[in-house]
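Key result, reporting period 2: structure in, sequence out.
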C-alpha cells in the first residue's frame, strides 16, 4: 500500500490568506480541509501579520501536514501593495518552516498550468478544476480554492521528491528490520 502524505497549500495575502490541506496516496488526491484567514484592516500592519501567523499555527496544529507549498509573489504595479504581500508571504513561509516542515514555492503560472493545464487560467477555471479534482471539497472562497490548487501543484510537482524520500526511509527501515 502506498504511503499517504499530507500537503498544505498557502495562498498568502494581507487581507485574506487562503489555506488548503490534501492527502496524497499514490496518484489519489483527497480533500482534508480548507479555509481563509482574514486580518482586520483597522489594525496595524504588525497586528495583522500576527493574526495571519496565529491562524496558520492553528491550521498546522489541527492538520499536521508533512509539507507545505506557498505561491510566489508576482510583480505588482503598486510597490506598496507588493511590499505588504511580501510581508504576508514571509509569515506564510516562516510558520511551517518554524515547525520543521519543508516549504516549496511555485510561480502562479506553474500552479495554474499544473491544475488547469493553462498558465493564464482565470479564478473561475481554477476553482472548477479544484472541485473536479477534489470532489465534495466545498471551497468557500477563491483564496481557499487557490490554496488547494497550490497543494495540488505540489503533489504533482514537488511532491514526487517527498514520495521518493518517504519510500527510501521505508526501505531503509525494512532493510534494518530484516538484518535484526
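The corresponding designed sequence is given below.
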Amino acid at each position: 500500500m502506498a504511503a499517504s502524505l499530507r500537503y498544505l497549500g498557502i495562498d498568502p495575502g494581507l487581507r485574506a490568506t487562503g489555506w488548503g490541506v490534501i492527502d496524497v496516496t499514490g496518484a489519489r488526491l483527497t480533500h482534508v480541509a480548507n479555509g481563509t484567514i482574514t486580518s482586520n484592516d483597522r489594525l496595524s500592519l504588525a497586528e495583522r501579520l500576527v493574526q495571519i501567523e496565529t491562524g496558520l499555527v492553528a491550521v498546522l496544529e489541527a492538520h499536521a501536514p508533512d509539507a507545505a507549498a506557498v505561491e510566489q509573489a508576482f510583480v505588482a504595479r503598486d510597490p506598496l501593495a507588493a511590499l505588504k504581500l511580501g510581508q504576508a508571504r514571509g509569515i506564510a513561509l516562516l510558520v511551517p518552516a518554524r515547525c520543521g516542515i519543508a516549504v516549496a514555492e511555485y510561480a502562479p503560472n506553474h500552479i495554474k498550468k499544473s491544475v488547469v493545464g493553462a498558465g493564464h487560467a482565470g479564478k473561475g477555471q481554477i476553482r472548477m478544476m479544484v472541485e473536479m479534482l477534489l470532489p465534495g471539497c466545498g471551497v468557500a472562497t477563491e483564496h481557499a480554492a487557490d490554496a488547494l490548487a497550490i497543494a495540488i501543484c505540489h503533489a504533482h510537482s514537488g511532491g514526487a521528491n517527498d514520495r521518493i524520500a518517504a519510500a527510501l526511509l521505508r526501505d531503509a527501515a525494512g532493510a534494518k528490520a530484516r538484518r535484526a
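The chain has a mean pLDDT of 88. Residues 159-179 form the longest helix (21 residues). This case is discussed further under Risks and Mitigation.
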